[in-house]
Design brief:
There is one protein chain. By secondary structure, this protein is an alpha+beta fold. 22% of the residues lie in helices and 25% in strands. It contains one helix and seven strands; from the N terminus they run H-E-E-E-E-E-E-E. The protein has a four-stranded mixed beta sheet, with no helix packed on it. A three-stranded antiparallel beta sheet has the order 2-5-6, with no helix packed on it. It is elongated.
């Protein structure tokens, strides 16, 4: 049999291909180990144990920054989107509250919060204190707080009487 140079180089090429594939597999495995190690060290856990030799890499993890010091907790909004929150105070404990366009209210002693539809002009607010005393506030649009007091000019207006004819009689006329 005649041996050519290409036939002699065939086993060397096969060995070279096997070595290249093995080296690539080792490189991919090492990258996986490094990635798993760095992720688990940033979470504060140890990497999973395996029977294969693994490369270790220490990655310094930055500690999370502490929250900025705050003197008061962040206020939560009582009003939902599209509503206006109105804070009201009075000289005594509030029992009830009335205003046009009010969606919700929260009464706590001498203060109250109301979620209202946005208004234009002046909003009239009426409240009843413990003991039945009526108090009022006139709140211009854009304002978010008011004090309820006994001024009568801020009272919720009642509609004026109308001069309608008395329809209590017989609607068919007299017999």
């Amino acid at each position: 049999a005649q041996v050519t140079e290409a036939t002699r180089l065939q086993p060397a090429r096969t060995k070279l291909t096997i070595v290249a594939v093995a080296a690539s597999a080792l490189a991919v495995g090492a990258m996986v180990v490094i990635t798993v190690t760095s992720r688990s060290s940033s979470r504060g856990t140890s990497p999973p144990a395996s029977g294969a030799a693994t490369a270790s890499m220490t990655v310094p993890s930055a500690a999370p920054a502490p929250p900025p010091p705050s003197s008061a907790p962040e206020p939560t909004s009582f009003a939902h989107a599209g509503e206006v929150e109105l804070d009201l105070t009075a000289d005594g404990p509030i029992e009830s509250l009335r205003a046009s366009g009010m969606k919700r209210m929260e009464i706590s002693g001498a203060s109250a919060r109301a979620a209202l539809e946005p208004w234009t002009g002046t909003l009239k607010v009426e409240a009843t204190l413990e003991g039945g005393k009526k108090v009022f506030a006139s709140v211009d649009s854009g304002k978010t707080s008011a004090h309820l007091d006994v001024k009568t000019h801020g009272a919720v207006a009642t509609p004026p009487p109308t001069n309608k004819p008395d329809l209590q009689g017989n609607p068919y006329g007299t017999p």
